[in-house]
Inverse folding.
């Protein structure tokens, strides 16, 4: 698997991944009716932030967006988000993207990485993040409306560098 910065012509393969993840409404707090144009504006980062893709056998199997968590006094902490194609889940794509984001943040001198809203029901992602050094520092009870489980908590997770 190779990970590289998203190129303009990658969007045609990235959009179906983003669309499917968002429409499932079980991990991201994005509007499930989001259009390709809206998703592009949200997902494709402007420098100094970065959007990347994971490529396997010539196909994009995942994507990540990374940057500063909050401006000003919070600018020393990074954040990232990850989406993996349904057919590629469980094969280490998300782990590879998260490692890439962690390395990217360390290289830029961030003090740590914070995830603001990880659905506690997304057990696979929570397990990956814990394995890579993140801790749950708090959970907002019932903050995420899962389509089948009802209201579940949103974890705030942090990895100090």
């Amino acid at each position: 698997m190779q990970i590289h910065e998203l190129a303009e012509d990658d969007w045609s393969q990235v959009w179906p991944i983003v669309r499917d993840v968002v429409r499932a409404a079980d991990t991201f707090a994005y509007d499930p009716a989001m259009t390709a144009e809206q998703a592009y504006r949200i997902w494709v980062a402007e420098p100094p932030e970065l959007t990347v893709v994971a490529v396997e056998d010539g196909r994009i199997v995942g994507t990540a967006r990374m940057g500063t968590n909050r401006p000003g006094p919070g600018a020393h902490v990074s954040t990232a988000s990850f989406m993996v194609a349904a057919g590629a889940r469980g094969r280490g794509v998300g782990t590879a993207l998260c490692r890439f984001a962690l390395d990217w943040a360390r290289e830029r001198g961030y003090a740590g990485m914070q995830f603001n809203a990880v659905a506690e029901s997304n057990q696979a992602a929570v397990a990956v993040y814990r394995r890579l050094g993140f801790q749950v520092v708090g959970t907002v009870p019932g903050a995420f409306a899962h389509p089948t489980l009802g209201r579940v908590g949103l974890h705030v997770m942090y990895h100090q560098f």
